[in-house]
Amino acid sequence: MADTNGFETNRGKGGETHQQLASEGSHAVQGRLTTNQGIPISDNQNSLKSGHRGPTLLEDFVLREKIFHFDHERIPERIVHARGSAAHGYFELTESLSDVTSADLFQRVGDKVPVFVRFSTVAGGAGSVDTPRDVRGFAVKFYTQEGNWDLVGNNIPVFFIQDAIKFPDLIHSVKMEADRAYPQAGSAHGTFWDFASLMPETTHMLMWAMSDRAIPRSLRMMQGFGIHTFRFVNKEGKSTFVKFHWKPKLGVQSTIWDEAVKLQAADNDYHRRDLWEAIATGNFPEWELGVQLFDEDFANKLPYDVLDATKIIPEEVLPLKVVGRLVLDRNPDNFFAETEQVAYCPANIVPGIDFTNDPLLQGRLFSYLDTQKSRLGTANFHQLPINAPKCPMHNFQRDGMMQMTVPKGRANYEPNSLSAAGEEGGPRECPVTGFRSFEPASGQNEQGDKLRVRAELFADHYSQARLFWKSQTVSEQAHIASSFVFELSKVEFEHVPPRVIANLMNVDMDLAKRVADGLGIDLPKPNPAAKEPMDLDPSPALSIQKNMLETLEGRKIGILIADGTDAGVLTKLKDALTKAGATPFVVAPKVGKAQLSDGKAIKADGQLAGSPSQMFDAVAVLLSKQGNDMLLREAAAIQWVMDAFGHLKAVGHSPEAMPLLQKAGVEPDDGVLELGDAFMAAATKRYWDREPKLRLLA
Ligand code: HDE
């Protein structure tokens, strides 16, 4: 029937049954619409009024309940890592670690444990974009048979600070500035660099944050790190130190800065969409879990402290042992209920794993539980389905806001002897299989006076920053130096950039000079290091470019077509790309129709203006003479080609598309070639050598 505005409503006039109403709709209907109290609703279109044009009545509980609930839909976002995307999957053990840990998930090869993994940026709010220069969170919840283990890591193996007491300062400085509330989601501003320049311990992590690691191509193409040194403890109570590494099956790949900036405009949800689509199409993201295992003696011989979260142990010094794989194979059913409400906590560990005295880790053990209470509102957040363990859970904790379980019986304390009276006595502790903290041999416990201090080796702030710098390719070094220039050029406090450069002088003089030169300022006076930096051996494993996986797997290739495009070549190209594991994405001036050479019309996957080439790993410009002539007058097409070339991607083309390439400033090199088999190989790479011809990097 039509309402007074003439709109069709689904309100039954003459007492039609719900089923009759439902059958009118084209969608499958799942039961009756009700209030939260289960009361069936007859009209979800109009509020209750006094007369046709009269006021809405307070009595309308259907309206009030709906608006009330809507008003409270948001919860406080995470104070850091607010913007995130997550997926379900599993961890499968490929190598038993039963000799070093009693942790149940590391015993039997082939055992699978369900996981929920959330990736995040750090600085931006929940609604911010996916591709700023930032560290990425890599948090894994393992639902093991011995309880939940959360490995709450990042995509960079070190952290900015050494002691938890500096965390609020660090985060305040990097978030939007206190008075003006900008900039959103970025470190390129005064307060961050002011803080960083006064804290030389940030230098190593700054090198990583200014590198391409902080602008990943995809969440599926990032490494993950547990960062801190943890402990494994075996059945005999023996401890082995362990560092955790995730290695992506698709290789590590990043964008370059100009591309990342343009991605922010092209698609705010670039990473979220990429993860979702990969899983939805069955291209399940996968990582290997590698562990670095070492003992106290090894740790004591290192020239840096393994309890210092600003230090790594290079893989060349201590190789990884690969012990399992992580596969993400299911998208969340509901973003809020799962991705938003998931509550990670580094203090969630299982028997066989333990903490170390890393002072950053120790602070985190308090922070996460605390923050979840303020974010999720109740001490019972562990009962939310995404947080609940998938193994039996029994204890005597009771009540509290939003208690979802209904415990039975009188036993809510322990010890009790209610079973003697024939009643349920409840669970009991188990000294054999229960969690026990690692007990060092007598006399080996760290103890001493109460002191607010840092351990001596923590004072070496530059050796590993230098190691990182020396491990990069020429092109990666240019990106790092240029990022420092870019970020510092946004700092309006004139006294701050020289202080940053003075710290960099302790890392590498060439780097410092390039940054000063890029900013157009003089080299400042040196800032003597608290501890003279050492020259450690470079670690090739730290370079992305040296370890690039030349593959089309998981990559997305943009194909620009227009009316007249050769149908045969297009089909062949799409088939070959799909076979190689890539996703072809056809871009055309009109999304609904492009008339190909065979007279048939096809739909495109995206419209030209809405699908810029930064969304792709390589591009093919497949145009007829007619299409080329038309696109020569289309700025979006010229920009499409120019950006692909400028972002160092392979540009394949039909001979007829040459004029468009020329107009876009494309110059011949190995990455520019006619479409064919050679393009398939070319599209697996980026062309770093092209960059110095296009960009004046620092
Ligand atoms: Fe976090 N961090 N953090 N952090 N962190 C949070 O917990 C904190 C640190 C990391 O996807 C918060 O639930 C302190 C290092 C990730 O939900 C909060 C310190 C590493 C996530 C918190 C650190 C991380 C968080 C905010 C210094 C890498 C997102 C919301 C002592 C190893 C998890 C929340 C998710 C989230 C505190 C340092 C990783 C406030 C105090 C180092 C991946 O509890």
Topology:
Layout: H1 18-24, H2 61-71, E1 84-93, E2 112-121, E3 136-144, E4 147-154, H3 167-174, H4 190-198, H5 203-209, E5 224-225, E6 230-233, E7 239-248, H6 257-266, H7 270-280, E8 286-294, H8 296-301, E9 321-330, H9 335-340, E10 353-354, H10 359-376, H11 463-470, H12 474-488, H13 496-507, H14 509-519, E11 556-560, H15 567-579, E12 583-588, E13 594-595, E14 601-602, E15 606-607, E16 618-621, H16 625-631, H17 635-646, E17 651-653, H18 658-663, E18 672-674, H19 677-682, H20 691-694
Parallel strand pairs: 11-12, 11-16, 12-15, 16-17, 17-18
Antiparallel strand pairs: 1-2, 1-9, 2-3, 3-4, 5-7, 6-7, 6-10, 7-8, 8-9, 13-14
Helix pairs in contact: 3-4, 4-13, 5-11, 12-14, 13-14
The structure holds CIS-heme D hydroxychlorin gamma-spirolactone 17R, 18S.
Explain how this protein is built:
This protein is an alpha/beta fold. The chain folds into three domains: 49-383, Catalase core domain (Catalase HpII,  Chain A, domain 1, Beta Barrel); 459-545, Hemocyanin, N-terminal domain; 555-693, Rossmann fold (3-Layer(aba) Sandwich), CATH 3.40.50.880. It has 20 helices and 18 strands. The protein has helices at 18-24, 61-71, 167-174, 190-198, 203-209, 257-266, 270-280, 296-301, 335-340, 359-376, 463-470, 474-488, 496-507, 509-519, 567-579, 625-631, 635-646, 658-663, 677-682, 691-694; strands spanning 84-93, 112-121, 136-144, 147-154, 224-225, 230-233, 239-248, 286-294, 321-330, 353-354, 556-560, 583-588, 594-595, 601-602, 606-607, 618-621, 651-653, 672-674. Strands 1, 2, 3, 4, 5, 6, 7, 8, 9 and 10 form a ten-stranded antiparallel β-sheet that branches. Strand 6 and strand 7 (239-248) form a beta hairpin. Helix 5 packs parallel to helix 11 and helix 13 (496-507) runs antiparallel to helix 14 (509-519). The radius of gyration is 29 Å and the shape is globular. It starts with 17 loop residues before the first helix and ends with a helix. Mean pLDDT is 95; it is low at 1-23. CIS-heme D hydroxychlorin gamma-spirolactone 17R, 18S binds next to strand 2, strand 3, strand 4 and helix 10.
